[in-house]
Each structure stands twice: as structure tokens, then as C-alpha cells.
User: Which sequence fits this backbone?
């Protein structure tokens, strides 16, 4: 394995240039990794969806509510194990720009349909007892500096007025990608206020969450639910949780596509930086390659030298980029919390960045290696010095 | 000063491949930077165009979008009879009461549904929004299930072309006309007769009231009085500001992503520029030695290399801006977080953006070329001339 020694020494001949190239490739791989993480962050909702949960919402759009009376009918459909409901609150805490999701759950039992949210039983009991109790995700608790037992006042937009809650519990996620930014409270709190001030809006829920016995029958059961309410005043659209999350992707499709285009551009930039260096390096060493050829080294050896050095540099750059990716995505995740509830690094991202580095290493060496092989020894030796 | 112009420019042509590669690399970074700026500019322009300074819009207090605002009929009566509201030829208040809802419609291109705005309105709307014109077909007839479609909606959504039909709220609606609103947010909406929309969605209320002011300067009086009125819980805004505010969340989001990408990219570009300039210095040690021997000062040598770096960067900048300007032909359709509805807008180039992009490019060139230039200036004449 003397070849590694040779490659290393060769690379170190121009320490500064090699270091800069490694840095350049590293930064570009980092950029690629960040972009891919952003793209996959959009899809965490889809990836995290439970296969045995369906979401049923108004067919018109998610912004329309459904009557509570539908619950009994849904429960009677064969294959349905449990039904609960959620409603979007869309309030804000002090500043409207500090968005976080607030969802009204039917009651404490709703949490049983979401095993991925880890809450302790004391908190659930409190949630069940007190109408204005709230259970908040750890990320949002940290963000606003709340503690269990705090009184929190939210200003409603869809449901106007000031709403006072007491935080009775905190929930964490079972996995890294679970959404831990949500603020859950009791739907009864909304309904009671509506009874007092907007009687027309009583008994309305946002969407149904349906747990089914057999995930394989998801399509059938969804169709059965929609059939139940077809041609009524409140038609539903029922789909698996994954499909529901996926439908939100349609809204940001344009942004995702742009990010993918930019990822491709980044790969181009990486290639340019690496190829530039290899071209410069190879040009300087033409006479050396001529000498090697005179000594009897074959074209294969030359390719090995050039390709090897290129792979070494881009490999080191790739490793640097991947190492930096972890702390940087954590920092970015904290900054972008509002828009991305979770910012995990997909294993696929590691695979993609690693193979990009290797691919770039190979491609950057192609042109210089080709030139070196085609070189006539006499021409090469002519450039002594 | 011939040194700065002629010498530096001609040096760029010496090592064409390397210089070319660096220019392309820098160009790509500038392209991304300019494209993001153009995107947020386009978004702002679209939403700022939406609305006039002469109009005030009334929504429920604390509502930041019409889709979450509810105003009762009784409140509407109080609002439209204020003294600051202009009157039309018949002596009636120049105001339009509208209802706004979100409906899922299938996109033409791309997957899935998107939230589209349906606005229930009346004929009066043309008096208040003077930049709206019917470009094909005709206005809807009150009392029917007819709609007119904004320019962007007719292009992006299935069934929304002239004569097309879409189904929602248990009814089939026919598109009888298309309208154009000069690139404002209204192009992304479908308009229908207000009573029909109210009936179909069983919401006998208004989302907003837009009124023409007799004198824009009287806006503050109107705002103070209405917001203090105990019979009402409303928020009064100038129409332009109201719609512009709706772009805030999306603009912040796009800006943030853009900045993150630009920062990381610019690091890469700076490193690329550094590599090229170090290569240039290494290749020209004899030249540098000669220049110094002839009497040119260290500072001048450093300046020469800095200028060369800036030239490369500016060329890359021009390439990037030129490529970005081609994006002005592209329209983007995405969800505006402020209203949760689909909005179409395009990339808008402005002289300020061109300036920023070129300045950004020059800055990258300066930073990247700095250290190599310093090295060039520090070369000892004797050693430099000895090199080959």
C-alpha cells in the first residue's frame, strides 16, 4: 500500500492548494447536505405518519368544520377501532409572527391514539380534569421559556378573544423526527365559549382522527366514511395520515422543486472546484508523468496516481462536509423551528453526500488523467523545469 | 493607471480554463443570490399591487387574513355609513362587502390539491378596484352559480378555464369570464356572487368590507373611531398595507432559506476564487519580481491582484445576473402562509437587485483575492526572479 504514501505526499506538495480544495469541497458538500435535509424535513410529516390512522376532513377544504354528530356514525363503520377529533386553533402568544401549532383535542383519551407523543399519566389526568389545561411539546416550552404550572394567555384569530390556559404537562417525541412543537388543549373549552358568544359555531370540529384495526383496509374504510356523508351538507374527504400530510406537500411543491434544482447546481460547483484543482495539479506535473512513463509505469498507474489523489482530496472534503453537517443542521433546526417542526438528518442524506464526494473525486480526475495518458513522452520531457 | 485596466484585463485571458471555471462557479452563486432576491421582490410586488391607497379594508379585530375574519351584517351597516366613506353617483356608500373562503381545487400541473380563494362579491367591486378588467367572457350574473376566474387561477387549476366547470359545496359552478388584475394577488382568486357563495357555504356573514375614502388623509380618524366603537370588534387598515402584511411570513421564510443558501454558497465561491488567485500568483512569480524590480511598490502589486480578482468576480456576477434575469419569465405558484391560500407571483428584477448582486460578487472577489494578493506583494524580488 505504498501508493497511499505517494498520494499523501503528492497532495501535500501544495499544502495550501490542497487544503483550500478540501475546504471548498467540504463547504459544497455541506451545502448539499443542508439542502437535502431541508427537502426531507418537508417530508417528515409523511414519513412519521402512522399507517393505522386516517384523517377525515371537510371535502371543501381543511378550513371548514364538521359537526360533532358525525362521530357516532363513523364509530359504527366496521374496521374502525377508535375515533377522536382535532381542531386547528390558530392563535398566537404575544406576537402574531411567532407561529406554533395549537390543536384542540377531544379529551385526554385522544392522546391514546398518538403513541408517539410521550406524556406522563399525571399530566393526562390533569388534562382530563381541567377544562383549560394544556399539554405542550418540549420545543415550544423551551422557545417561550414556559414551565409546568404557568398561566399562558393566547389571542385567538379564528376563535376571537383572549384564551387563558394552564400548562399541565409536557410531551416529548418517541423519535427524533416527531413533531414536538404542538400545543394541545381541550376542545370543550372552545365549545363552551362558542355556546356563550357564537351559538352558530357550537358542536363543530376541525377533523376526525380515526384509528383502524387493519392498515391494509385503509382505502376501503376511507371510502366507507366518505360514502356515509356523501351528498350531505358536510361531505368528508378521508385518507390515510400519510396521504393527508402529503397533500400539504402540494402547497410547497414549488419551493421543494427549487431546492432540488439548487442541489443539482451545488454538485456542479463541487465538481468545478475539484476539477479546477486537479487540472492545475496535473498541468504542473506533466514532466513527472513523462518520466514515470519512461521508467515503464503503465497508463493504469498514472490513472491511479491522478485518480487516487483526486479521490483522496474529495474524500477528505466530503468527510469534512459530513462532519460539519451535524452541528450545522442542529443550529438551523433551532432557527427554522417555526417552519420545520423537526430537522433530522435522513440516513439517505449521508449516503448521497458520501457518494457525491466519491463521484466528484472520480470525475474531476477524468480530464487530467486522459491528458496525461495521451501525452507523448518526448513532449512531456521537453517541459523540464 | 494603464496597469490597472489593460494589464489586469489581459491577464484574465492567459489561463482561460481556470479563469473560466472560476467565473462560472461565481456566476452560479450570484445566480442563486439574485434569484432569491427576485423571488421575494416578486412576492412583495404582487401583494403590494393588491390594493389601493384610497381604500380602507375592515376585518375582524386580530384577524390577519380575510379567511379567518367574520363581520356580522349589523356591524357592516355601521361601518359603511361613516362620514369618511365616499359616495357613488346614486348617493350610496362606495363600499363592497365580501366573503372569502378557501376551497380545494386540483392543480393542472403537479400533484394534488391546493387551497384556492373564492371571493363572494358584487358588481360594485369594479368601482373600488379600478385595476381589475374582464379580459374574456363576462361578469357573473347575481343569483347564479357562475364565477369569474383570475388570470393565474385559470392557468394553474383544472376546470378553471373560460367555460370550464368546478364542483364544490355540493354545486357545480361555471366559469363565465376571466379577469386580470395587473399581477396583483387577485389574479389567484375566483370571484362569485356573494349571496350564492354565502348560501353554498352556509355562512351568512362577511369576511371583509372594502371602502373608498373621500380623502386618504382621513384614514386615521376613521380607524380610531371604528376601533373604539363598542358595537364593533373590527380592525381598520389601509388596503395596500393589509395585503402587503400578508406576505410577511412567506417573505421571511424565503429570505431565511435564501440567506442560508447564499452564505454557504458564497463560502464555496470565495474558496474557489482563492484557489484560482493563488494559482495565478504562483504562475507569475517571475513577472511579479520583474514588476517590483522595475520600481512598482508592494502596494501596487497587491492592488493589481485584488483588481484581477474583482474583475473575475464581476464577470461571474454579470453571468449570474444575466441568467437570473431569464427567471423573470417564470411564474411561481405556492402557498402564502399568511392566508394559507395559493398565490401566483413571478421573479421580479430591479436595479437594486442587480446592484446588490454585483456588489456581492465584488465582495466575494475581494475576500477571495485578498490573501493571494498579500502573498504576491510579499514576494522578495531576488527569490521571485530566481524562480522558473
Assistant:
Amino acid at each position: 500500500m505504498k501508493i497511499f504514501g505517494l498520494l499523501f505526499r503528492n497532495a501535500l506538495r501544495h499544502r495550501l492548494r490542497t487544503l483550500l480544495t478540501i475546504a471548498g469541497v467540504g463547504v459544497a458538500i455541506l451545502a448539499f447536505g443542508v439542502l437535502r435535509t431541508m427537502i426531507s424535513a418537508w417530508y417528515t410529516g409523511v414519513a412519521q405518519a402512522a399507517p393505522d390512522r386516517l384523517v377525515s376532513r371537510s371535502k371543501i377544504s381543511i378550513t371548514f368544520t364538521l359537526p360533532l354528530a358525525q362521530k357516532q356514525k363513523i364509530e359504527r363503520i366496521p374496521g374502525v377501532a377508535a375515533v377522536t377529533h382535532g381542531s386547528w386553533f390558530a392563535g398566537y402568544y404575544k406576537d402574531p409572527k411567532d407561529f406554533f401549532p395549537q390543536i384542540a383535542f377531544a379529551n385526554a383519551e385522544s392522546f391514546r391514539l398518538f403513541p408517539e407523543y410521550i406524556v406522563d399519566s399525571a399530566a393526562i389526568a390533569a388534562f382530563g380534569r381541567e377544562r383549560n389545561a394544556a399539554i405542550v411539546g418540549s420545543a415550544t416550552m423551551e422557545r417561550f421559556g414556559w414551565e409546568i404550572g404557568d398561566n399562558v394567555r393566547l389571542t385567538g384569530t379564528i376563535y376571537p378573544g383572549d384564551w387563558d390556559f394552564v400548562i399541565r404537562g409536557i410531551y416529548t417525541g418517541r423519535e427524533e423526527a416527531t413533531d414536538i412543537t404542538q400545543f394541545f388543549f381541550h376542545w370543550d373549552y372552545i365549545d363552551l365559549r362558542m355556546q356563550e358568544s357564537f351559538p352558530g359555531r357550537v358542536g363543530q370540529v376541525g377533523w376526525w382522527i380515526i384509528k383502524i384495526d387493519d392498515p391494509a383496509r385503509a382505502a376501503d374504510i376511507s371510502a366507507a366514511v366518505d360514502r356515509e356523508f356523501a351528498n350531505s351538507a358536510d361531505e368528508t374527504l378521508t385518507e390515510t395520515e400519510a396521504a393527508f400530510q402529503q397533500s400539504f406537500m402540494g402547497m410547497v411543491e414549488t419551493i421543494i422543486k427549487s431546492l432540488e434544482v439548487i442541489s443539482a447546481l451545488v454538485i456542479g460547483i463541487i465538481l468545478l472546484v475539484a476539477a479546477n484543482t486537479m487540472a492545475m495539479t496535473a498541468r504542473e506535473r506533466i514532466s513527472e508523468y513523462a518520466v514515470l512513463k519512461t521508467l515503464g509505469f503503465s497508463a493504469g498507474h498514472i490513472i491511479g496516481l491522478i485518480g487516487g489523489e483526486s479521490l483522496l482530496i474529495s474524500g477528505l472534503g466530503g468527510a469534512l462536509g459530513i462532519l460539519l453537517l451535524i452541528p450545522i443542521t442542529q443550529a438551523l433546526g433551532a432557527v427554522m423551528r417555526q417552519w420545520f417542526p423537526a430537522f433530522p438528518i435522513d440516513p439517505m442524506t449521508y449516503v448521497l453526500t458520501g457518494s457525491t464526494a466519491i463521484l466528484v473525486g472520480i470525475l474531476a480526475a477524468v480530464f487530467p488523467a486522459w491528458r496525461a495518458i495521451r501525452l507523448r513522452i518526448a513532449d512531456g520531457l521537453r517541459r523540464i523545469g | 493607471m494603464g496597469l490597472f485596466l489593460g494589464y489586469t484585463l489581459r491577464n484574465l485571458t492567459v489561463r482561460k480554463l481556470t479563469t473560466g471555471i472560476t467565473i462560472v462557479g461565481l456566476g452560479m452563486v450570484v445566480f442563486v443570490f439574485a434569484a432569491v432576491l427576485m423571488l421575494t421582490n416578486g412576492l412583495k410586488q404582487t401583494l403590494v399591487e393588491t390594493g389601493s391607497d384610497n381604500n380602507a379594508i375592515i376585518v375582524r379585530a386580530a384577524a390577519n387574513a380575510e379567511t379567518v375574519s367574520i363581520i356580522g351584517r349589523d356591524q357592516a351597516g355601521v361601518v359603511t355609513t361613516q362620514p369618511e366613506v365616499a359616495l357613488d353617483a346614486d348617493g350610496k356608500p362606495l363600499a363592497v362587502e365580501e366573503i372569502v373562503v378557501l376551497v380545494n381545487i386540483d392543480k393542472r400541473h403537479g400533484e394534488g390539491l391546493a387551497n384556492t380563494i373564492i371571493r363572494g362579491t358584487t358588481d360594485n367591486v369594479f368601482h373600488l378596484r379600478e385595476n381589475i378588467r374582464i379580459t374574456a367572457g363576462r361578469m357573473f350574473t347575481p343569483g347564479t352559480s357562475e364565477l369569474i376566474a383570475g388570470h393565474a387561477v385559470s392557468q394553474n387549476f383544472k376546470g378553471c378555464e373560460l367555460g370550464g366547470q368546478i364542483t364544490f359545496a355540493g354545486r357545480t359552478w361555471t366559469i363565465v369570464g376571466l379577469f386580470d388584475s395587473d399581477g396583483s394577488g387577485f389574479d389567484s382568486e375566483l370571484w362569485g356572487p356573494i349571496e350564492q357563495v354565502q348560501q353554498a357555504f352556509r355562512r351568512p356573514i362577511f369576511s371583509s368590507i372594502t371602502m373608498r375614502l373621500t380623502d386618504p388623509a382621513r384614514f386615521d380618524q376613521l380607524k380610531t373611531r371604528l376601533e373604539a366603537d363598542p358595537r364593533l370588534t373590527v380592525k381598520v387598515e389601509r388596503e395596500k398595507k393589509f395585503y402587503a402584511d400578508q406576505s410577511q411570513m412567506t417573505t421571511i421564510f424565503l429570505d431565511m432559506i435564501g440567506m442560508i443558501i447564499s452564505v454557504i454558497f458564497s463560502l464555496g465561491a470565495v474558496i474557489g476564487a482563492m484557489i484560482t488567485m493563488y494559482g495565478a500568483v504562483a504562475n507569475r512569480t517571475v513577472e511579479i519580481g520583474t514588476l517590483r524590480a522595475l520600481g512598482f511598490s508592494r502596494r501596487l502589486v497587491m492592488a493589481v491582484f485584488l483588481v484581477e480578482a474583482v474583475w473575475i468576480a464581476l464577470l461571474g456576477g454579470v453571468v449570474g445576473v444575466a441568467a437570473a434575469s431569464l427567471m423573470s419569465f417564470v411564474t411561481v405558484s405556492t402557498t402564502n402562509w399568511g392566508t394559507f391560500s395559493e398565490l401566483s407571483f413571478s421573479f421580479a428584477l430591479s436595479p437594486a437587485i442587480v446592484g446588490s448582486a454585483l456588489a456581492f460578487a465584488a465582495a466575494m472577489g475581494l475576500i477571495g483575492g485578498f490573501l493571494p494578493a498579500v502573498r504576491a506583494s510579499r514576494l522578495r524580488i531576488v527569490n521571485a526572479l530566481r524562480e522558473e
Summary: Chain B touches chain A through 63 residues (CB under 8 Å). Residues 62-232 of chain B form one domain. The radius of gyration of chain B is 29 Å. Chain B is about 50% helix and 20% strand.
